[in-house]
Amino acid sequence: MDELIESLRASSPGRLWTRVAPQLESWNLDLPSLILRGADAVSGVLMGKRCRRWPPTAIRFVVNFFLTTFRLFFFFREANE
């Protein structure tokens, strides 16, 4: 386990974190809270776009389904003639 921690600290992100962490502590930032709020904002924007887009798509699906069913009914009914 100690080898894993040392290899992580020796990596590029680990070295960057050792330089940045003291600055973040001096600024009294709550990093997990900031990350969670950012992720929440991004997911809200993405879901907002999807929620506005799905009603027309659902309506189009229902209309196309009934048109296809109607056409197939007459296609199969008149196929024997």
Describe the protein:
The protein is mainly alpha-helical and 81 residues long. The chain has one domain (2-77). Helices cover 88% and strands 0% of the residues. The protein is built from 3 helices and no strands.
> Can you tell me the number of structural domains?
1
Helix content: over 70%
The largest pleated sheet is described as: none
Radius of gyration: 28 Å
How many beta strands in the DSSP annotation? 0
**Structural class, from helix and strand content?**
mainly alpha
Contiguous helical run count: 3
- Detail the poorly predicted runs: none
List the helices and strands in order: HHH
Distance between the termini: 79 Å
Instruction: Tell me the fraction of residues in β-strands, as a range.
Output: under 5%
Per the principal axes of the C-alpha atoms, what is the gross shape? elongated
Mean pLDDT: 84
List the helices and strands and how they pair.
Blueprint (H helix, E strand, L loop, with lengths): L1 H9 L1 H15 L4 H47 L4
Kindly list the characteristics that best describe this protein.
mainly alpha
Summarize the structure.
With 81 residues, this protein is an all-alpha fold. The chain is 88% helix and 0% strand.
